[in-house]
Amino acid sequence: MDQEDEIDPRYELRLGAGRPLPDAIAEKLRSLVDSGMFKPGAKLPNESELARNMRVARSSVRTALQRLEAHGVVEVKRGVGWYVRRRAPVAESDGSAGLLVKRYPVADLFEVRIGLEALAASLAAVRATDGEIDEIAKYNAEHLDAADAPEELLRTDIAFHEAIVRASGNALLFENYQQVVGELTEWRFRSYREPGVPLRSGREHTKVVRFLRNHDPSGARAAMNGHLHRLYDGLPEISGEPLDSTDSGADGEPEWPNRSVGL
């Protein structure tokens, strides 16, 4: 192996059979923070550099960073990069570590995501400023321009949905959304390799933007529900009538499938 191909031992991952790669990356980054290599307030290497150092895909690095963000270890400054938080993160031993240490089925995560984002879209239609809506529309335009580039499709999709949740003005909703959606990043990245998904996604985003501009909370909620339900319908564990084609009425609830779950 050439010297330039050797992995920096500081970034070597502890991998195990069946262990998700983002978990190993998150553990390694947290250990680098705890060791003092990255001090409070310090800027982390960008996602591409971290991916090169660890010999992994950038999408896996982003998933790991989003999980650490949900637990107060790092924070993102839009257009600048990722930083170590100045305040101490929540200890994982107090039962509040949440999704970082417990795995949930994708369908469970998606059902919670639908509820959070539908509410966020409705609130954003009432509360978002013209500037915030312009930013949401800008991310959608970038998403449409991304064509078939999965990395760029993922980046713009994350930015679009996150901007809507931020525009809801509800900090608790945003915090819970970040935890849930961080667990879905790898799945979202893979979904953009499916034919037709990028174009359909952009068109459905455009419908959400239209209702936001019209300050129509019911329309924004319905458009977001339809967009996310279509993705939910495509999950392997979901069968039966698609949610977005059920006739549940303007104020009704979709007919959720009675799938086998355990709590």
Description of the molecule:
With 263 residues, this protein is mainly alpha-helical. It has two domains: 8-86, Arc Repressor Mutant, subunit A (Orthogonal Bundle), CATH 1.10.10; 102-242, Four Helix Bundle (Hemerythrin (Met), subunit A) (Up-down Bundle). The chain contains ten helices and two strands. Strands 1-2 form a two-stranded antiparallel sheet. Helix 4 packs parallel to helix 9, helix 4 packs antiparallel against helix 10 (217-233) and helix 9 packs antiparallel against helix 10 (217-233). The termini are far apart.
Main features:
2 strands, mainly alpha, 263 residues, 10 helices, two-stranded antiparallel ribbon, Arc Repressor Mutant, subunit A
Give the SSE map.
Elements (H helix, E strand, L loop, with lengths): L20 H14 L12 H8 L3 H13 L3 E4 L3 E4 L21 H22 L2 H16 L4 H18 L3 H12 L2 H7 L5 H17 L3 H17 L30
Antiparallel strand pairs: 1-2
Order of helices and strands: HHHEEHHHHHHH
Level of helix content? 40-55%
* Oligomer state of the chains in this structure: single chain
Structural class of the helices, strands and pairings?
mainly alpha
Shape: globular
- Number of β-strand runs: 2
- For the termini, the CA-CA separation is 48 Å
- How much of the polypeptide forms β-strand, as a percent range? under 5%
Give the number of helices.
10
CATH class of the largest domain: Mainly Alpha
Runs in which pLDDT lies below 50 for 5 or more consecutive residues are 88-101, 245-250
What is the average of the pLDDT values?
A: 80
Label the CATH architecture of the largest domain: Up-down Bundle
Protein name: FCD domain-containing protein
Region (Disordered): 235-263
InterPro entries: GntR_C (IPR011711), TF_FadR/GntR_C (IPR008920), Tscrpt_reg_HTH_GntR (IPR000524), WH-like_DNA-bd_sf (IPR036388), WH_DNA-bd_sf (IPR036390)
Pfam families: FCD, GntR
